[in-house]
Amino acid sequence: MPDSRMSGKKGMVSSIRTRIRTDSFSTNYEIVGKELGRGKFAVVKKCIEKATGKEHAAKFLRKRRKGQDCRSDIIHEIAVLESAESNPFVVSLHEVYETAAEIILVLEYAAGGEIFHQCVADSDESFTEQDVIRLVRQILVGVACLHGNNVVHLDLKPQNVLLTCSQPLGDIRIVDFGLSRCMDDMTEVREIIGTPEYVAPEVLNYEPISTATDMWSIGVLTYVMLTGESPFLGDNKQETFLNISQVNVDYSQEVFEGVSSLAIDFIKSLLIKDPRRRATAEECVAHPWVSEHPHPQSHPHSTLLPTQEPKTNHPESEPEPESPAHSPELVIVASYTICSNQSELKPGRGAFAFDEPFPTHPEITQKCVF
Ligand SMILES: Nc1ncnc2c1ncn2[C@@H]1O[C@H](COP(=O)(O)OP(=O)(O)OP(=O)(O)O)[C@@H](O)[C@H]1O
């Protein structure tokens, strides 16, 4: 990401190449089917480009959020998508429209929906370990390209990793660069809204964010894809945060039934509290679990044997992905230092607040300024 395009604040980019169209979106596209997904400030709908008949996903982003003009945040999201144009595993940006209230990103349509659905699916529809290896390798290659381009995603979770097709299992597309940041220079991030289960300990501890922060999330993601369980999820947010900061992970046989020990070793190389000791995306690609295929077909969510029938291919009957109800549950207002060089990691300054007190740890205050 070239320095000249950086806004100088928050590791965000302020200029884009894409022409923003102000003519009518609905003249050129027809919305079809139900919503593909929804975030706090965006709705994503499937649409057809009238001129070509091609399917796309239109992400309608509100410019005003909580009474503030957030156009620059959307411009940054567009700039990051532009910078990842040649990245095969990042969703591609087709066109951009602007209305008085919204900016519409016309994106490549990922017909297979979120990998989340297969993570929580019944055992006969969930991923095999071989599937997970192939998909994790693609995530790693995609993320290695982003990191090589000094971009950190900061919101990698199963809802932001989509599939080009679900049956037969297609390729991954990383989406949602709304929280992503560039690391060209030492920059401060003052507000991060993330999803508790996937945030790294340094985010909770107000320590600097780096590419290693994404690697933690890939560790969590791999765990979920293999086991169908979220490793740090507690009964409430506070418990989840404690589990993360204590790296309280269950690697028992019970949870990892039918999963190879190499897979567990891979996850262990990522779920490490000290970001400097975590494996990088490039190191992960070279990990034997990812680089070699010594395992027979095993089914991680169940005790299914290697002789399991192959999945049937029904690409023409691709189901519409369900619209999940997303609600970002964590709001951390903090000041982070983002470093491109991990040896320069320095703690940031800021403030945080929890909605509820910690029942088991009253010494943890609900609000803290540091
Ligand atoms: N290109 C696409 N193809 C198909 N579905 C998509 C596409 N982009 C997004 N979606 C769906 O819409 C959902 C929301 O998209 P996205 O995460 O980009 O929005 P967001 O408002 O930034 O979300 P959040 O508030 O969770 O960060 C995704 O989780 C996915 O289910």
Automatic annotation (TrEMBL):
Protein's name according to its UniProt entry: Serine/threonine-protein kinase 17A
Pfam families xrefs: Pkinase (PF00069)
UniProt domain Protein kinase: residue ranges: 30-290
Reaction(s) catalysed (UniProt annotation): L-seryl-[protein] + ATP = O-phospho-L-seryl-[protein] + ADP + H(+); L-threonyl-[protein] + ATP = O-phospho-L-threonyl-[protein] + ADP + H(+)
GO process terms (BP): apoptotic process; intracellular signal transduction; positive regulation of apoptotic process
GO molecular function: ATP binding; protein serine/threonine kinase activity
Organism domain of life: Eukaryota
Species lineage: Eukaryota, Metazoa, Chordata, Craniata, Vertebrata
Signal sequence segment: none
Species per Swiss-Prot/TrEMBL record: Scleropages formosus
Family to which this protein belongs: Belongs to the protein kinase superfamily. CAMK Ser/Thr protein kinase family. DAP kinase subfamily.
Subcellular location: Nucleus
PROSITE patterns: PROTEIN_KINASE_DOM (PS50011), PROTEIN_KINASE_ST (PS00108)
Enzyme Commission number(s): 2.7.11.1
Region entry Disordered, spans: 290-325
One GO CC term, this protein: nucleus
Keyword line: Apoptosis, ATP-binding, Kinase, Nucleotide-binding, Nucleus, Phosphoprotein, Serine/threonine-protein kinase, Transferase
Primary location class: nucleus
